[in-house]
Amino acid sequence: MIPKFLIEKLEGQYGEELSKKVIEGYSVERKVTFRVNTLKSNKDKVEKVLNENGIVYKKVPFYEDAFIIENVRENKIRELDIYKNGEIYLQSLSSMLPPIILKPKEDLDILDMAAAPGGKTTQIAALVGNKARITAVEMNKIRAEKLKYNLEKQGATCVYVMEQDARRIDDFFSFDEILLDAPCSGSGTLNIKDSKLEKTFTKELIKKSVKSQTALLRKAINILKKGSEMVYSTCSILQEENENIIENILKTNKVEIVDIDFKEISELPKLPTKIEGTLCVMPNEEYEGFFVAKLKKL
After folding, report:
1. How confident is the model at residue 100 (pLDDT cuts 50, 70, 90)?
2. Residue 262 pLDDT > 90, yes or no?
3. I need a labelling partner for 187 at 20 to 30 A (CA). Which of 65, 94, 212, 213 fits?
C-alpha cells in the first residue's frame, strides 16, 4: 500500500491525473530488460541466441544494445550462457540513461561516485571500449565485493574500485567526467505489493536521502575539472531529491545546466520537470521512475 503522504506529495507535484498514472506504473509488473555487454559480445549474437530459445523481444529506441523481453521472466534469462558468461547485463532501461547522457569519452578520467552493484560502471566501460580510466566508489564492503565481481564478469578492465565514502574523496583528485547516480528514496521504483512499504518508505528516508545527495553533489562539483560535464541522477521522482537539489547548486554559480536532448527522447514516458533541460521518466511496464540532469562546471 502506498503511504498517504506520498500520494499527497505526488498530487501536489504532478496533479491528480498524472499521479494516477504514476501509481498505475507502480502496480504493473515491469518487463525484463537487459543490455548487450559490447566488451564481450554483440547484438547480432545475442539476437541469435534469443531466437534459438524462443524468447520474444523488442529493441529500444534510444539504445541499440538494449532489449525488452516480452514473454519470459528473469530466471529464464539467467539460465542462458550469454548471461552466465557476462555477455549481457540485466538492467532497467531507465538506469541505462545516465551513462548514455554522460556520453563518456576515451582516454579520460571518469568517476562513478556511487557505483555498486556496477550496472552503470560496466556500461560506461563498454561505451568507451575499456579505453578510459574509470574510478568506481563504494563505501560498503559487501557491496564493493559485488561491484568487483560484476566488473570481472563483464570484463571491465579499465576500472579501479575505491572503497570509500564518496563524500570524503580528497579534493586533490580531479576528473574529466563524473556520474553521480545518487542514493535516493526510490520513489520511482516502488512496488505497491510490498506489505512493508508503509514502514520502509518514510519522510525520514527522503530527508536522509536529500542530505546525502546534497553532500555528494557538492563534492562532485569540487573534483570535476572546469569546463567538464557530469550527470546527476536518481531513481526518485520527487522534486526534493531532484530539481530542488539542482536549483540549490545552480545558485552557487559554479555550474550550469546542459540540455538533455537526443532524438529518441520524445519516445520516453516523461513527467514534467521544474528545470528546463532535465529529464524525469515516468514509471510504467517498461521503465522505472528516474530523474537525470546534466551539469557543466564553469
Report:
1. very high
2. no
3. 65
Q: How far apart are CA 40 and CA 30, in angstroms?
A: 27
CA dihedral 163, 165, 167, 170 (to 10 degrees): -50
DSSP 176-199: EEEEEE-----TTS--TT-TTHHH
Separation between Cα atoms, residue 236 and residue 56, nearest integer Å: 30
Distance CA 263, CA 61 (A): 9
pLDDT of residue 89: 98
Phi/psi zone of residue 227: left (φ > 0), alpha (ψ -120 to 50 degrees), beta? left
Report the alpha-carbon distance of residue 23 to residue 41 in Å, rounded.
37
pLDDT score, position 124: 98
Buried b or exposed e, range 234-265, using 16+ CB within 10 angstroms = bbbbbbbbbbbbbeebeeeeebeebebeeeee
C-alpha cell at 74: 528473469
Q: Which active-site residues does the annotation give?
A: 235
Cα three-residue angle 19-24-28, rounded to 5 degrees: 150
Which residues contact residue 142 at a Cβ distance below 8 angstroms, ignoring those fewer than 6 apart?
none
Alpha helices in the chain (DSSP H): 4-27, 43-52, 74-78, 81-84, 93-102, 119-127, 141-154, 197-200, 203-223, 243-250
CA separation, residue 230 to residues 55, 103, 225, 233 (Å): 37, 10, 10, 10
Mean model confidence pLDDT for the chain: 96
Domains of the chain in sequence order: 4-29+93-297 (3.40.50.150), 31-91 (3.30.70.1170)
Say how far apart CA 203 and CA 200 lie, in whole Å: 10
d(CA 28, CA 9): 21
**What strands, in cross-sheet order, belong to the sheet with 63-69?**
57-60, 63-69, 33-36, 88-90
pLDDT surpassing 90 at residue 193 = no
Location of C-alpha cell 575505491: 162
Q: What is the pLDDT of residue 101?
A: 97
